[in-house]
From TrEMBL, chain A:
PANTHER family: CYTOCHROME BO(3) UBIQUINOL OXIDASE SUBUNIT 1, CYTOCHROME C OXIDASE SUBUNIT 1
Membrane topology value: Multi-pass membrane protein
Residue span, Cytochrome oxidase subunit I profile domain: 43-558
GO molecular function per UniProt: cytochrome bo3 ubiquinol oxidase activity; cytochrome-c oxidase activity; heme binding; metal ion binding; oxidoreductase activity, acting on diphenols and related substances as donors, oxygen as acceptor
Keywords of the record: Cell membrane, Copper, Electron transport, Heme, Iron, Membrane, Metal-binding, Respiratory chain, Transmembrane, Transmembrane helix, Transport
Cellular localisation: Cell membrane
Protein name: Cytochrome o ubiquinol oxidase subunit I
Database matches in InterPro entries: Cyt_c_oxase-like_su1_dom (IPR023616), Cyt_c_oxase-like_su1_sf (IPR036927), Cyt_C_Oxase_1 (IPR000883), Cyt_c_Oxase_su1_BS (IPR023615), Cyt_c_ubiqinol_oxidase_su1 (IPR014207)
Iron among keywords: yes
Gene source species: Bradyrhizobium frederickii
Keyword Magnesium on entry: no
Positions of transmembrane segments: 16-37, 58-81, 101-125, 145-169, 189-214, 226-254, 274-297, 309-331, 343-367, 379-402, 422-439, 451-473, 493-517, 595-616
From TrEMBL, chain B:
CDD domains linked to this entry: CuRO_UO_II
Identification of the protein by name: Ubiquinol oxidase subunit 2
Originating species: Bradyrhizobium frederickii
Family to which the UniProt record says this protein belongs: Belongs to the cytochrome c oxidase subunit 2 family.
Membrane topology: Multi-pass membrane protein
Any single GO CC term annotated in Swiss-Prot or TrEMBL for this entry: plasma membrane
GO biological processes: ATP synthesis coupled electron transport
Domain annotation Cytochrome oxidase subunit II transmembrane region profile: ranges: 1-92
PROSITE patterns registered for this protein in UniProt: COX2_CUA (PS50857), COX2_TM (PS50999)
Amino acid sequence: MLGKLDWSAIPFDQPIPLAAGAVVLVAILAVLAWVVAKGHLPYLWHEWITSVDHKRIGVMYILLASVMLLRGGSDAIMMRIQQAVAYQSQGYLPPEHYNQIFSAHGTIMIFFVAMPFVIGLMNLVVPLQLGVRDVAFPTLNSVGFWMTATGALLVNISLVVGEFARTGWLAFPPLSELSYSPGVGVDYYAWSLQISGVGTLVAGINLVTTVLKLRTKGMNYLRMPMFCWTTLASNLLIVAAFPILTATLAMLLLDRYLGFHFFTNEAGGNVMMFMNLIWAWGHPEVYILVLPAFGIFSEVVSTFSGKALFGYRSMVLATMAICVISFMVWLHHFFTMGAGPDVNAIFGIASMIIAVPTGVKIYNWLFTMYGGRIRFATPMLWAVGFMVTFIVGGLTGVLLAVPPADFMLHNSMFLVAHFHNVIIGGVLFGAFAGFEYWFPKAFGFRLDERWGRAAFWFTFLGFYVTFMPLYIAGMLGMTRRMQHYDVAAWRPWMIVAAVGMAVLTIGVIGQIVQLVVSIRNREALRDRTGDPWDGRSLEWATSSPPPVFNFAFNPDVRGEDAYWDMKVHARQQSLEHDRPDYQDIEMPRNSPTGFVCAFFATIMGFALIWHIWWMVVLGGLGAWATFVVFAWRDHDEYVIPAEDVAAIDRINREERRGLVSMAGTV
Amino acid sequence: MNLLDPQGPVAAANSTILVDSVFIMLVIVVPTIVAILAFAFWFRASNTKARYQPDFVYSGRVEMVVWSIPALTVILLGGVAWIGSHQLDPAAPVPGTGSPVRIQAVSLDWKWLFIYPDQRIATVNTLTVPAGAELNFQLTSSSVMNTFFIPQLGSMIYTMNGMVTKLNLRADNEGKLQGLSAHFSGDGFPDMMFDVNVISPLAFPDWVAGTAKTDAVLNEASYKKLMQQGIERGRPSYRLEDPRLFDLIANQHIPPGPGPELISEAGRPHSGGHDAR
């Protein structure tokens, strides 16, 4: 009846996950109860859960990423404490638990923090920057988000029902094959990634289509803001790379469920094929994450320097170069597999070549600041912190691309330090910068600057105190994923890293406090103009939060930095025409398709993990039926009458006029 | 296990390349970081002495320079990588004094087996080698992937079931070193550290003779027992019955090692974890 599921799946003997699970469950129930009791449920359902508005979906992506950041961060804290105490002892985490934690940490941070965070920001901002009313496929967008949430939910269920993978975040076979990992951990891993991978792929298709096909009048390619370019590059990579991941995991699942031999030791299976395939996805993945961050920094540096981005075309070229080359370097993840020197050298050099366009980007940001009038608001702090930190990560990255150096450093703590250096220093700093920068756009009030600065400094310093010692530990021969060790020389560095982790944690708490404080003081922090930072691109040309239709009129773009030009134009001629001719606007209807699909996908995923076949059929049929119902819909749009558009737009227009005339006098 | 304290020519060359590469990059990186901080500080909005140039958004000369700097650095480092990859190919010979020592390393769950086919002995979790001689390693795995790595001798390499990788090293100074697995392989992974005893070439034959006196014999049967999942705290050594044992393992004549035994049908096998403790 319930497949492999029985009471032994609940880890009654392990207090940590059980307690954590209980706390989370109580918290969820409490929130639900509060929502129901206060009567917010209809609001949540109509305005958020079934919303197909790209801005709302973007916000939900970021919320998901933030919650999962806390989960992945807890894992990180536990790991750092374990390695600080597990010198000549077992520490407090037995291997089967510790191994789940580092596997979950990697999986969560990449797939359920970094990915949804950048996809959320792209969703929120890109249609606004392009001057359009929504993404190309609004309902698909909702499906994509809820599929990602399903994956995240399954990973969290594994905390208390069964186990998570104990194989590392890429589940290398043969360790991840049935003979060496007979538990459900790898199945949790693979199915949550398969389901969320569907979500990521449709998000990628959606955003590529949006950038390619939906741009407002005059917004040709070389007038798009940099963030739109990096979004295009990143999503092209998603569309090209994620099917590789899906196929690879599908083969692993065939091995595990149906006795195939793609990657087994026996019967001609080949683990090297898995390594090649997973990294053929895995390396582009790195750029899928970091390219949008580069875009965010481009926007932030330019806005807060009061200048257009230096070398815009050069930046476009660099972005697309990274996009293409990132597919040609995957082998540098396993120089130590014994490929010949020619192969190693060619992939090493290809990897270094990526450093050229990346270096160009750094210099172009540098020259954007040159001659600027730099305001150090929180987003700019993150940007400068990123530039300094990312260069260090780039240095160690190029070092690891030199095969003889990699022969010493591969899989070491040095490598761990390197990729945290670029992922925290690049992607996470970028996500935080984007969060601070676009928060006023999404919610209509700014975030508290003092807490923002405090959060930045703690995170920034905490990062260095945590990860510089890991570089040193790597130079002392320490390899990654050690549940305990007997080498005295490593110990002090592990203790320093744990201290750094505490500082980093304060930084994250600072950000939560910032959010709470800002929500409380929202009236004082209110931004009525829609343009709190003196921005340059079109997202600042509408109110904050933008109306559901984003723009009452399709903006007409005449150059790079579209909104900046409009402002300059308006100042010179001191006019924004008074009685615009408002039209009816058609917008897509909200749809529960995404949520219902995800509901059935969760059932199906859980049933697949536990071999509950009747439930698999049920979930599959349900998801299919949802799709059919959606496909047969009669009305998918509704009309906002011109009077309503006019009423909404006039308020914003008044506020903005004040801003423009004031700015004109300065 | 300090990488910057190499005890053999391979590690010395590796770490030289490592340090050189870092210095080549620091020449670019340090000025860039200084420039970032300096520009950010000088062009702060409150500095009235800084000249605001909102139209300085393109300069062909600057573009030329910013593409050239990283490109030239990468050309230089690419040369280092190309030459280094060829000179330090793990399979390339490392000439030494005396006759080379052939060692066949097998990663087991979770211990290292070192077979000396010419000496007809084998050891577990301890590797004894003569100083100055070329060490020819052939490596494979009994089950999952591992990486063979002696940090102070240099160049690590994967071990994979059904496949043989090659690695040549040399230890120059007598002493005790440590090796480890650098690729996660399951619950007992952290206990895959092994001792490396570098002894004088004169003492090596004595060590071989002493080891060969042991009663324990390594053959297919005892190997199969050894490859069961578990941790080896001792340092057992064996007489090698069949010098082709490694080939039997590598060509899967001996099937891959079994995984954990399932205690219950449920998703939570405990056996591996308990063994590890």
